[in-house]
Amino acid sequence: MPSFINILILFVFTTFFMSKLINSDKCLQDSEDGCDNGRYRCCKGTYCQPVKDTNIYVCSKNKCKTDGQGCKSNNDCCFGTKCKSGKCQKCSKDGGGPCYNDGDCCTGLCDVIFNQCY
């Protein structure tokens, strides 16, 4: 007959492995929104880029431009960069900073009181 200690150990290990399975990061597929190149990454072969003229990001098979590459608008640049002077340049993400004006933020919105992008 199994002892209480054995059952307790089995319970702890089962709980641990189940939480790892449930909380494991999964990549976002083509056309799925909410990517941020952090916890919510796009699957291999897709790129996190903005929906035209918005601050909503989706995974797309269309390759976007990264920091230092030429661009015509923010729509050309990958998440975490925006088009400035014809090149994609790093910008502060939502909740990031410091920012001192709207141009510092990927979203284009800076809370100048708290110096954070939103």
Please explain how this structure is put together.
By secondary structure, the chain is of the alpha+beta class. It has one domain (4-117). Helix content is 17%, strand content 17%. The protein contains one helix and six strands. The protein has one helix at residues 4-23, and strands at 47-50, 57-60, 81-84, 87-90, 110-111, 116-117. A two-stranded antiparallel sheet has the order 1-2. Strands 3-4 form a two-stranded antiparallel ribbon. It has a two-stranded antiparallel ribbon with strand order 5-6. The longest helix has 20 residues, at 4-23. The protein is elongated. It starts with a helix and ends with a strand.
> What is the end-to-end distance?
59 Å
Give the overall pLDDT as a whole number.
83
* β-sheet strand percentage: 15-25%
Number of E-state strands: 6
In total, the number of domains comes to: 1
Order of helices and strands: HEEEEEE
Instruction: Report strand order across the widest sheet.
Output: 1-2
What is Rg?
20 Å
Sum up the overall morphology in one term.
elongated
Largest sheet: 2 strands, antiparallel
Discrete helix count: 1
Low-confidence stretches: 19-23
Q: Return the structural class.
A: alpha+beta
Helical content, roughly? 10-25%
